[in-house]
Design a protein that fits this description.
This protein is mainly alpha-helical. It has one domain. The protein contains 5 helices and no strands. Helix 2 packs antiparallel against helix 5. The protein is globular, with a radius of gyration of 11 Å.
Length: 72
């Protein structure tokens, strides 16, 4: 069964508004919600944002984030 979120279409704002997804983000990438550029990227689909952040977020963290959000 597919999860609630399709990271190709779900925006960062949608994840941040969901308590379960927000908890995962806060745990794995705690600096993200307070990042100075957050207002500019909240409307982007998550996978697009992750592609743009290559090198800034470790690949293993991205993999765990995708796995755990996908399991919701």
């Amino acid at each position: 069964m597919a999860g609630r979120f399709d990271l190709d279409t779900t925006t960062l704002a949608e994840l941040l508004d969901d308590p379960q997804a927000r908890a995962i983000i806060d745990e794995l990438v705690p600096e993200l919600p307070a990042h100075p550029m957050i207002g500019f990227v909240k409307s982007l689909p998550v996978n697009q944002l992750l592609a743009m952040s290559a090198g800034q977020v470790p690949a293993d963290t991205v993999a765990v984030l995708k796995e755990r959000i996908g399991a919701l």
